[in-house]
Write a structure and sequence with these properties.
It is a single chain. The protein is α+β, with helices and mostly antiparallel strands and about 80 residues long. The protein has one domain. Helix content is about 25%, strand content about 20%. It is built from one helix and three strands. Strands 1-2-3 form a three-stranded antiparallel sheet, with helices on one face. The longest helix is centred in the last third of the chain and has 18 residues.
């Protein structure tokens, strides 16, 4: 039977309504990465309207999310 697990990086806000990363196993493992937002410590969006800062924060946090689910992230 297929198993579905949700993950978030241990150091960041984990929204209760969806998983940042979803891992599907007992088939070929697949990670689904949801639309990302950089959150501040209170769960609000970080960086306001600064798109470049928001994008950097999202990519910086995507690697630990992927690793937590035992995924691989490109190095280049």
């Amino acid at each position: 039977m297929v198993e579905i697990e949700g993950y978030a990086a241990p150091s960041e806000y984990d929204p209760p309504s969806y998983a940042q990363v979803t891992k599907v196993t007992r088939a070929q493992p697949i990670l689904f990465i949801a639309g990302q937002v950089a959150y501040d410590d209170t769960g609000g969006p970080a960086h306001g309207r600064d798109f470049a800062a928001q994008a950097r924060a999202v990519f910086r946090s995507s690697r630990p999310r992927s690793r937590r689910a035992e995924g691989r992230w490109p190095t280049s």
